[in-house]
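C-alpha cells in:
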C-alpha cells in the first residue's frame, strides 16, 4: 500500500490542523493505521493508532485529549485532527500501515508501510 500524507503547515500555539493520509494500492480496510512524529534531533515517536477492525483509537499520553485519529474507509484516507497545538508538537508527522495483529499497534517496527511525512510547525 502507498501512503501520501498532507496537511502540515505553520500554526500558532493553541491552533488546529488536520492531517490527511491517502492510501492506494491494497485494501485500506485491512490495515491498522498509525501516526508517528519525529522532531529534529529526536527519535520517532508514536502519536496515535486506529485498528482495522473498528474505529476505536489509542493515543500517546502527550496528545490524549487534543488529537483525534479517524479514518474514512470509503475514501481510503486516514486523518489526524490536532487541536490546542503546542510548540512541542512541532515535528514531521508520518502515517503508517500495519498488517500485523488486530489491536492497537504503537511500535514503529510493526508497520510495514510509511508515508513521506508532512511538517507541522507550531509557533509560540
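Residues out:
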Amino acid at each position: 500500500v502507498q501512503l501520501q500524507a498532507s496537511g502540515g503547515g505553520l500554526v500558532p500555539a493553541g491552533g488546529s490542523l488536520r492531517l490527511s493520509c491517502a492510501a492506494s494500492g491494497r485494501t485500506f480496510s485491512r490495515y491498522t493505521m498509525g501516526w508517528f512524529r519525529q522532531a529534529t534531533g529526536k527519535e520517532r515517536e508514536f502519536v496515535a493508532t486506529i485498528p482495522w477492525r473498528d474505529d476505536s483509537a489509542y493515543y500517546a499520553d502527550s496528545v490524549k485529549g487534543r488529537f483525534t485519529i479517524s479514518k474514512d474507509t470509503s475514501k481510503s484516507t486516514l486523518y489526524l485532527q490536532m487541536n490546542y497545538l503546542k510548540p512541542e508538537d512541532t515535528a514531521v508527522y508520518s502515517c503508517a500501515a500495519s498488517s500485523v495483529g488486530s489491536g492497537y499497534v504503537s511500535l514503529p517496527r510493526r508497520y510495514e508501510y510509511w508515508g513521506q511525512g508532512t511538517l507541522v510547525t507550531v509557533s509560540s
